[in-house]
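Deliverable D4.2, example record:
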Amino acid sequence: MRLLVSLFFLFFVTIGFSQSETKPVVDSLFREDQFYVSISYNFLQNKPDNFSQYSFSTGLSAGFLRDFPISDNRHWAIAPGIGYSFNDLKQNIDFSSISNSTDTEIVKSRIILHYVDFPLELRWRNATPNSHKFWRIYGGFMASYLINGKFKYEGSFGSGTENINDLLNKFQYATYLTFGFNTWNAYIHYGLNPFFDKDKTTTENNVTTLKIGLMFYIL
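Output generated by the structure prediction step:
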């Protein structure tokens, strides 16, 4: 009986030591920041003289980036991806400045744009396999393909919605920069070409956008 008790006790002591000595498996081939979501404000650049922004011109985006580390410590990486972006550009248009009327005619309008995005990032971060809290600086280039564009307006003569796909450039190009720590990351996105096709508008319209906001990454 004593022998049985001794063997039983020895068995549990051995199991206890083996569990205490077990170390967590470290993933030395870790990847970072595979999914992203951003919210930003659109600052319109190169506006016509009779344009002025109002309210909050929203920019939203979300997508997936495949992280490919290119250094041994995995601090440097490249990340191609695909995503979706939505832009709601709000502006007042003063038509009295381009007509013979002496009356002031202000039209409140919105340009609503939907794109498929193709980002490509060069990444630096001081991440480790044991922690997801780290500093990051990501810079990239983005090509965006137009899905749909609408122009909504409201004035004294009425209101309506028009499809403007034929007036817009099918592709938008931009550079962007993201930097921050852990959850909170600043996001700056600069458009490189105008929204409107210069060959399809009666008046020259070189409006581009500068987006400033926040970027959130998820593994």
